[in-house]
Amino acid sequence: MTTISIVTGGSRGLGRNTAISIARRGGDVIFTYRNEASQAQAVVAEIESLGRRAAALRLDVGDIAALPPFVDQVRTTLRSWGRERFDHLVNNAGHGEMASFAETSEAQFDQLFKVHVKGVFFLTQALLPLLADGGRIVNFSSGLTRVSYPGFSAYSAAKGAIEILTLYMAKELGSRGITANTIAPGAIETDFLGGAVRDTPEYNEALANMIALGRVGVPDDIGPAIASLLGPDNRWITAQRIEVSGGQNI
């Protein structure tokens, strides 16, 4: 049976690459977007060009009140595809904030935790009745939970919370055969922080010099890794933090 994956933040960056990588492996995809409707429809078209089904649903993952109607939309989409359950949940949606520990504001802190922690917690909880037994959960963390760079204290603390939350998901949902793992990308050329790694040659080169494979990552280094983790050969992997960084800071 064809798998159905839900990917949050799938209209751009690593979420987009993940959604398309899943489709290339034969899966159908429901993905969320927040504001980029035209980008989302372009992703739908690309997935459909691969012969797979796709649906783009608008969601701000930090808006907890929006979760019940979103779950209803997911249920309606599944039924239109002849299914009652989906197989994989990839919690990717998020944003970055760069500020020193001394200068991080309460608003910055709250927004990071609202999206990266509270949103992941309650979105996953809300979708559990629709997640098939034997399903998979992949949560996005960051290489910044293993090494520290000034300016990312709140962001990294939120991602550290996700790593612990993933362990509890793996333990408490294991009786249903559901696995839960964390993917931790290193430095990647995306629009994260306004495209700093992608668009600033000096920054890109400095990071590349810290990476064993000699370059920063690109989305095609991350999406296929997640799609592979969701495959049937990896059914016995759970409660793991899997860093995909090219050997950064080793």
UniProtKB/TrEMBL annotation:
<keyword id="KW-0560">Oxidoreductase</keyword>
<comment type="similarity">
    <text>Belongs to the short-chain dehydrogenases/reductases (SDR) family.</text>
</comment>
<protein>
    <submittedName>
        <fullName>SDR family oxidoreductase</fullName>
    </submittedName>
</protein>
<dbReference type="InterPro" id="IPR057326">
    <property type="entry name" value="KR_dom"/>
</dbReference>
<dbReference type="Pfam" id="PF13561">
    <property type="entry name" value="adh_short_C2"/>
</dbReference>
<feature type="domain" description="Ketoreductase">
    <location>
        <begin position="3"/>
        <end position="186"/>
    </location>
</feature>
<dbReference type="InterPro" id="IPR002347">
    <property type="entry name" value="SDR_fam"/>
</dbReference>
